[in-house]
Amino acid sequence: MTPVAQKAVVESPATAISAPLPPRPGPDSQGGAGIFRPLQALSDAVACLSDGQPAYAVMQANANVRTEPAVDGCRVGRAPAGTLVRIEGLYSQGESVPFLSLNRLEADSGFPSVGYTEDIQPIFAAACANCHGDLLQNAELKVTDYDSLLAGSKRGAVVVPGKPGDSFLWHQIATGVMPLVGKLSNSDKRLIYEWIRGGASEVRPQPPAAEDVWLRIGSADYNPAANGCNEPDNSPHTFINSTLVRFASCVAAPAAEQLAGYLPLSQEDNRGDIDKVLVGRVSRPFGLSGAPTGQNSVPAPTATTNTAPPVASSAGVTSPVSSTLTQTVSAPAQGITPQSGLGAAPLGLPAPSDDDPWMIPQGGFCIEQHLQLLLEEERGITSLAFAPDGRLFLGLDSLTTGSQDPNILFDAFHPSRSIAVYPKGYVPVQGDILTEILTESGRITGMVWRDGVLYLNRAGEVGRIVDGGVYETLAAGFAVESRLFHANNGIAIVNGWLYVSAGGVRDGFSDGLIAPGDGDAPAESLATSIAGGNPYGSRIVRAALDRLLSERTIGVFQTAARGVRNPYGLTADPQGRLWFTDNGATNVPGDTSAGDEVNFLDPSTLAATGDESTTPYYGFPLALAGMQKEWWSAPVLPLANTSAPTAITWAYGTIFYAQYGRDPGLYRVASVDGRLVAERVLLGWPIQAVTTAPDGALWIGTGSGGLYRLTPGCG
Q: What's the CATH code of the domain at 488?
């Protein structure tokens, strides 16, 4: 399918800064290893792409774009000075195969970027020095010195360069035998594994000389020109020499205030008007547009107040709200400020309209459709999750459009439901192939991959599939009733805890208003009431993952947040903080909040003991009963009634979420002047699943079987 997109151009001055902002985690929907960071040199870009992440750079001079990584390659365009380019691969002069690429299938085995001195020694010095350091060498093994480590222990070599599976050191680490005290993080383990696999170098290897390195860039990153060669242009790639750029960032494009520091010297005087500097660029990254004009937005809660923002429409336009939701209370806020990680600027898009083009993105996005012939009008997609190697797991169900078969709709367990694997994931291939790994299932509404295991949330239970294995139930007993069989929905793993968005089975309004009475206790018990008496419903719940794997019972779950009705999507941002959507009640008067919300939860504020009384309490259905208590937590983004938000993920430095009800589609959260807005970038229905790929791209799945990949950069 040919990518198509629309772009909104808003010109406004950007704030100049003296240096790049400090590193921050980047677009990884489950808070994994993708780290946004400034880049200073070619070696940094090598490390970035070695992590499976794209690198970004700014052209320092006008450059010819060629079809081969050589000065005599065919010229097909021009990248003006100041252009921001996305680097997809690194090539040596004249070579047809990259020595490093985002597409690992087309590159060599991988350019090792991990060195003992820079990466491994600090880990061993912190975790292993007590037993294998300068003072003590158990088993005659010293790991804090490169030569000593390679020499091995009294049993022989413990590191076999290039072969982690044959290395005794990796076996001890992978099985958890070592270290004896404490434990290594997953990222530390990954570094050690990659270090051994890459050859166990003492220092990080150096890339070729800069003048011999060519950067492969995207087709949207230059201005096409007449082909200067006689032969037809059949090359699928375009290149520029690395000496013509200044490397800027890894994982995601720099924001406007960061980008100012990377412009060519001749343009420094104009860095206050970045949009004009980049006017010749075909594609535009996030963060280059200013605040929209004539459009109100929703304030982001601060760290010292818990004032509820006004209820907003899906496009961020404020609407009247009852006075019970606008009182200031004394409890700390559960919300965020844009400075704490959400740095995307508004795209200046108009409010949602029925006249918007169907499934055509707005705001400078490209869109690709996948699996069209296999899924569309046959199976619906209920959830998505990626493995690091690019495999995409899809939760499939009967179509959620058109007439519904009551035998399927009201059955929590049905043969039409399954999990299938799209093996190529974000790598386009000819001849799409799907392989089912689980059939005849309860509806799968949440999945996440972690350390070789696919964890999934399905009707009434949480389970897992170890890579290559079969489904195993980990905990059952979540609230399920009739067509609300998806009552437990999202799933996320953060810092050793598995989180589940556990919904209820009562509406709370159409099923009869729940009268809380006087005092706090009845209100605090509303969650159990809405969940039909189930103490694990109408909440965000969590369980220590190691304990869940050991005991395999719902009893290990504890409350993380209360006051929600049917939380659907759940994701972790790169700082390990949770974002979740909540479906409010139906048939609620328009000036009363029904609890349709995007909420924010910081796990670091939770007590490990699981004291439910100290957990935050969110919106539903406090407004219905006219209550306002000091323990109430304001949403970061209140939505219009019947918005019915569904899936949610972190991508491109911000939050994306979908809506099933009013003004349906895909929304992007942005910040401006300390306030949050949600702009619809895609009209589509019903979007039930969103996730972020290892390369940072955003994927969405619909109940009608549509599977799409969205990336920024189309004009």
A: 2.120.10
